[in-house]
Amino acid sequence: MDNIKVGDYIIVQRQNYTKLHKLRSHGTMALGSFIIEMDNVIGEKYFDTFQIKNVPNTKKNYTLEKIEDLSSISTSLNVEQSGSDNRNIEADDNNQTMSSEEINKLKDEDLSSNNILEKLISNSKTFNTKTEYSQEKYIKKKSKKYFEYIQIRKPSIRLLAQMFYRQDPAKILGIRIDYLSQILSYSNIQSEGTHIVYDSGTSGLIPAALLESIGANTCGKLIHMHPGNECQKVAFLAMEFPEEQAKRCINVNLYSVLRHYHQTETKGLKDACDRDVDKQSEENVEMKEYEELEIMETENNEQPEAKRRKLDKSNWQVDNELACKLLRDGVHSIIITAKEHPQSIVDALEPFLLPSRNLVVFSTFKEPLQELYFHLKNDLSFLAVKLTTNFMRNYQVLPDRTHPEVNMTHGGYLLTAIKVKQ
Amino acid sequence: MSFDGYKTVIKEGDSVILYLTINQYYILEAKNTAVSKKGATVQNIFQTPYGPIICGDLIGKLYGTKIQLKKGWAYVLQPTPEFWTEILPHRTQIIYSTDISMILFYLELKPTSIVVESGTGSGSLSHAIIRRIKPSGHLYTFDFHETRAEVARNEFKDHGLGEYVTVQTRDVCTNGFGKEMENKADAIFLDLPQPWLAANYTTQVFKKSGGRLCSFSPCVEQVQKMCAALSNLGYQDIQTVEILQSQFSVQKKKMSVLNLNILKTQNDGKCEKSEKEYVNFITSVLPNSLPGHTGYLTSATFPPCY
Fold first, then answer.
1. Do A177 and B102 touch (CB under 8 A)?
2. Which UniProt keywords apply (chain A) (predicted)?
3. Are residues A97 and A139 in the same domain?
């Protein structure tokens, strides 16, 4: 297995918390209230565990030390006395006699969750009267706060999807892992064929997951259409696909590639009437595109579109041509994870979908999918149109204490359909 | 022969989905002849509610096109693992697409993955695994039932998937996965009544680089034992989830609106009822009865050993 090197995207895991980080030499990473120097993980192996250690004579700076013997990590403390129920416990802010300043000082002096915990417990008035279970809960809660061990993981689609969703579902348009898993199944994506994804902002997660399913050293291709100037690609970069594989994901702007397809490819074939219609829609599209680009520019503070296009004009044109060439042969699946109403996107893309192939549309809202449902059934050639939603919950599994986790999330909606030839 | 990759034209011997409605679809073989119950070779005719279809006639037709039947029409589609899961002949209880999708995701499968599965059962999950790992991955699937293994083996061959899968008769709970499986797998899936027994043998099966394990159990007691076993064996990231999918019935509804405002003003008392108004709206309804439980999915990471 590869060693961790500078330039790698790594996932730093501290108990259940995970964070994506790009390793630079002499770089630091913020983790909770810690600022950690990351140099000591370079050259080590993935899955290695490190201890967060205070850098002497600094307040907030920490460094990492590799743990060779994992058995030394144990948060189990010897608890001598416990109550049988909570009848003698009263809610009182003074149950902990140490002040927060004292605790913080402890943290800066020597970060060891076991030490801090021991002190917390010995200064807690009520700990010994708690039941064994709630003592365990207390230890778990506190050790989480002062846990000083981290593990370095190599990013995978699963880890990335779970991480983004936990940090902020909006970062991936609210696509929980169960929906992601179903997008991959119901699209019937595999190592061959051409696939379209229209994605308006999942931090690159959906294209990355699709390209992972297409695989390395295969012949499958992905046309990744996006609404902006540049596509989002954090998750895509984090996966560090081999060049051969990454090249089979063609990133194109939705407006730009469709204009190229309709106006460059079939020029001269249409009659005057058609052209008029096209011109109108082109103007609309162009306006929209500029709006869109303006938004992107203000958001990302990037170079103006015109300037950028001059710089790498050939690149985006080559990508458009490549995508259009594939589009003319038809595609084997269409996946839409959009912020926008899906209907016009489906209308524009479904002519490329080959018969007996699948369309999958995710939305956090039910209403647009309901409209799309009737549109597909009544106006277009689709069958097996299904609108579904999921219920998913995680479990705490412990001897005699297994139950669903206290919090759960609500997902979204998925529409699937199969194209046929009339 | 039609489960491998994307096909355009129906070839002789292909399995074809004959789609009538959302609740009526069948799988048939595009072959001119079939063997009757008496062992005689007869013309391969499939009876549908819309009339019979001569299966041999499908050869040469395009997937995704319309077929005229006596009393209506149908579409011919290329089968997918999802279709197969819905219509396969049940030899055991099977795992459905909602759980299957999660299993594939938890196992982090991709083309090149080497996967171990036990038991094979009716091959519902196996088809989905193979789609995700071909062309260069391989599935080793174990079942302790000799006949079941044999039927599954033939089925994979008939579906054109033979080269991606090895079916073996073996009781993995008692005998493990065998010497030849050592340090071979990226992922292991267990659907067994006592998965913790098989779990003891899993650690040798993983490649040195480690891998992912997933286990499906209907009962919570099984989950508790399994999680304890995995933890003892050095597995990390042990997670248990439950997942259910419900399908909406999307409907256009019409609701009458009572005009009660006219009652506020005096009028002649006529035509109060004749002015009926309606609102139209689209809604989605869940069926009255839903599946409430399938099984718990426990997944875990086996770390690499150097």
1. yes
2. Nucleus, tRNA processing
3. yes
CB-based contact B108 A158, cutoff 8 Å: yes
Q: Closest partner residue to A157 among B108, B250, B296, by Cβ?
A: B108
Q: Are residues A311 and A267 in the same domain?
A: yes
A93/A168 same-domain check: no
Q: Are B284 and B246 in contact (CB under 8 A)?
A: no
Q: Give the pairing type, strands A382-396 and B236-247.
A: antiparallel
The shortest C-alpha distance from B143 to chain A (Å) reads 25
Q: What was the pLDDT predicted at A411?
A: 82
Which of A51-60, A231-240, A301-310, B39-48 is least confident? A301-310
- How many structural domains are present in chain A? 2
Tens-place pLDDT, residues B218-247: 999 999 999 999 999 999 999 999 999 999
Task: Tell me the mean pLDDT in the region A292-302.
Answer: 41
| pLDDT, mean of residues A371-400 | 95
Domain boundaries of chain B, sorted by first residue: 15-79, 83-244+292-302
The answer to whether B158 is annotated as binding is no
Q: Which CATH superfamily, name and number, covers B83-244+292-302?
A: Vaccinia Virus protein VP39 (3.40.50.150)
A68-82, A277-291, B276-290: the lowest-pLDDT one: A277-291
Q: What are phi and psi of A47, to 5 degrees?
A: 85, -10
Average pLDDT score over residue span A314-335 = 94
Q: Which residues in chain A are closer than 8 Å to B291, comparing Cβ atoms?
A: none
Cβ neighbors of A397 (< 8 A, separation 6 or more) are B223, B224, B227, B238, B240, B298
Query: Would you say B171 is a known binding-site residue?
Result: yes
Taking only the tens place, the pLDDT of each residue in B269-279 is 555 555 678 99
The reply to whether A140 and A181 lie within a common domain is: no
User: Between A and B, how many CB-CB pairs are < 8 A?
Assistant: 172
Q: Give me chain A's average pLDDT, please.
A: 83
Task: Write out chain A residues lying below 8 Å of B101, CB-based.
Answer: 178, 181-182, 184-186
pLDDT tens column, A149-163: 899 999 999 999 999
Determine the distance in angstroms separating the CA of A310 from the nearest CA of chain B, rounded to an integer: 38
Cα separations in angstroms, A57 against A22, A54, B34 = 27, 9, 85
3-state SS class at B12: coil
Distance CA A226, CA A234 (A): 14
pLDDT in tens, A83-140: 666 666 666 667 777 777 777 777 666 666 777 777 777 777 777 777 777 777 777 7
Q: Based on the fold, state whether residues A129 and A226 are members of the same structural domain.
A: no
Domain termination site, one of A101, A129, A154: A154
Q: From A153, A138, A152, A12, select the one nearest A75 (Cα to Cα).
A: A138
Q: Give this complex's ipTM.
A: 0.95
| Virtual torsion, Cα A370, A372, A376, A379, nearest 10 deg | 110
Question: Structural domain of residue A148, as residue ranges?
Answer: 1-154
Fold observed for domain B15-79 = Vcp-like ATPase; Chain A, domain 2 (3.10.330)
A133 with A161, same domain: the answer is no
Contact B104 A1 (CB under 8 A): no
Regarding whether A274 and A163 lie in a shared domain, the answer is: yes
Q: Annotated binding residue at B118?
A: no
Q: Which CATH number does the domain housing residue A227 bear?
A: 3.40.50.150
How far, in Å, are A29, A285, B153 from residue B140 at the CA level? 42, 52, 11
The CA distance from A342 to A371, in Å, is 9
Q: Domain end: A154, A173, A188, which one? A: A154
Instruction: Give the tokens for residue A113.
Output: 């969750």
Q: By the 8 A CB rule, do A164 and A133 touch?
A: no
CB A51 within 8 A of CB A35: no
